[in-house]
Every structure is written in structure tokens, then in C-alpha cells.
Amino acid sequence: LPQLGPHLPPRLTEQPWHLQYCTRRDGFSLRTLYRSGGQPGSPALLLIRDTEEQTFGVFSSSAIRCSSGFYGTGETFLFSFSPELKVFRWTGRNNFFVKGDVNLLMVGGGSGRFGLWLDGDLHRGGSHRCDTFDNESLSAREEFCVRDLELWGLA
């Protein structure tokens, strides 16, 4: 987390973060992740490590939750550590920040492709270049298997 500090909105740099959900402790379930999230206006940091030891994720300006449409603000960004930190910020081309239902969590979009998606069991996911963040694929493969996942929120 320390490497991400300079990229977070200034109002959050001194805030204490705490672990709200992790697959090692809480199991693999998107529903459980939604229930563990903070207040809707509270930011969230989702960290993923895949089975190829790549680490990547998303900073969301809003809590990760179930929704009928996309939510979030231009503060939202994708990132990867491969091997050094790369941050992919909002391009302004659309407002497809975060959207989640019980079967799928999507971050970033446009042209039918998501910057990051995770299935309802949090076992599989994918990452494609998308209009929202003009990101590279965050993982070595466009589809990946999740090894560990953590959701951090403000204490």
C-alpha cells in the first residue's frame, strides 16, 4: 500500500486503512465482499494476486457494492505492479467506473471490454484495455485465476 499513497486523493493520504475482506479469511464470494464493504461514500482499495504472482487492482472512490448501474468518480483508477507500479487514470471518455452484481464485478468499460472483471466466486477474472482508463492488461494473461484478494477501506 505505501507505493500507492502518492496516487491517492490528497484527503486520504493520512487516513488509516483497514482490511475489510480477504479470501484467506473470508472465503471466495463476491456477495460476502459486498457485505464487507464500507459506507457508499467511502473509498475502497481492491488488491488481487493471481496464480502467476502478478499483483494489481483498483482504487475506487466509492465502496465496492452491488449496483444496477456504474458508479464512482474520476478519482477511480486501475494499477498493476509488474514489476514496478503503473497507474491508469480516468481518460474522461466515459463514466464506466465500477458496476457490480452477484455474478460479476466490472471496473472500467467501453466497446464491450472491461479494464478489470471478477466472477461471482472470485476465482476467475480478466483485464482488457478499456476506454475508461486506457490501461494495459493488468495481468500477464487477459483472463486470470485469483490466488488472493483483499478489500481495504477506511477505518
UniProtKB/TrEMBL annotation:
All residue ranges annotated as the TLDc domain in the record: 1-155
Gene Ontology CC, one term: nucleus
Domain of life: Eukaryota
A GO BP entry: response to oxidative stress
Cross-referenced InterPro entries: TLDc_dom (IPR006571)
UniProt cross-references to Pfam families, sorted A to Z: TLD (PF07534)
PANTHER family: NUCLEOLAR PROTEIN 7/ESTROGEN RECEPTOR COACTIVATOR-RELATED, TLD DOMAIN-CONTAINING PROTEIN 2
Protein name, as recorded: TLDC2 protein
